[in-house]
Amino acid sequence: MKLAKILRIALNMVKANKLRSWLTIVGVIIGIASVMAIVTTGEYFQEQVTETLEGLGGDTITIVASIPFEISSEEDMEYEEDTGESSEESAAITAKTEEESENSTSDPIELETETEAELTRKDVFVLRSIPAVKYVNVNVQTGAELKFGSEVTYIWVNGVDPSVWPDLTKKKIGEGRMLAPGDRAVVVISKELAKDTFEQEIRLNQMIPLNGKSYRVIGILANDGGLLGGMGGLFGSSVYMPYQEVYSLRNSEEDVSERERDVYDTIEVKLYDEADYDAALQEIERKLRLSRRVTEDTQDFYVNSQKEAIESTQKLINGLTAFLAFIAGISLLVGSTGIANTMFTSVLEKTKEIGIMKAIGAKNSDIMLIFLCNAAMISLVGGIIGILLGTAAVQVILLLISIKMSIPFEFALSLKGTFVATLVSIVVGLIAGLVPAKNASELKPVDALRYE
Question: Is 8 inside a domain boundary?
């Protein structure tokens, strides 16, 4: 029997019982729409979270100065017991020391405090010497008071290297321009600060006072975009300026020494795209240890990479999406049961027709293909409608979120989810119709013709 004829007979079987076929299709629609909506939403949120983390420095390596944290041993805590000194002896020694200090006419002794770890220009030179490093940016940060008109707010200022920051940052300029080498007394501000902080907007080329010093606005950043774009403005800086200018914001100009101008809060490093990430991290730590003359135990800096955090977040979202898709997939099991039930009923109704077809020469494989095609048609129609409904449901949800959060609407469609949903709908139909089709193909012509 030709394939075209098999498909025509299967289609006629679907049309002959429209109500039953559509009730079966509804079960498939619910399952496929649920899976499609969950997979598409999961991929969308994963993309948005990854984009947000990368915008906050996800593909950069940050070096921070830190003093090693040491835990006192039990032997140090039990020093008094080990030396055998009593509390009376300790008190006597203390009293004697105080008496000597009172009777002494010499200048008071200045206790030397432990020097804090610092990042300096020397560390920048070391990092630039590493072949895998593409950009090295320094950050000097401080809080500042911004008075605009009669309104006052406190903002976070980030001083950056103007020659490197525009190439390293993920932020895009909305109005004006980025910082450039040679800039002085200028700032680039976030769109949130320019448009939403004060009643009157801060415009391009306006002067704004920070801690009493005036700076000209040369650029306004664009919104990061996406569902979580606002997080960049929430956790990031509102003002960016050349790092040399930040020192004078912390203190008056005359109080800033040359040594203080050579100290940075953090150093950001970006690697070449083809660089070995893990090997580069090890090389950075090794060279900085040699330069700063510290060991792994006495290391006075910390190398932070957001790459592992991004990968962990992606795995978490993928796992959660897979779990929810599995739960939604249970409804597919219900749909497949409905297909199997419909196929068994069709076999009983078409028993005499099966006997007639076999009597005039139809093979077992032809009968089996007719019922398998019938099941595949039902599941395929349900799958296509389910994909459309699932995609539409996702767009409605994202539209409502975009209206609520006042962000641009972005159409989301998972090609992987579409392909998987289509494939699953067909496979579910074939599996559900396999047993009824096999039973139909094995009927003997004589028994089928005598069936009432």
Answer: yes
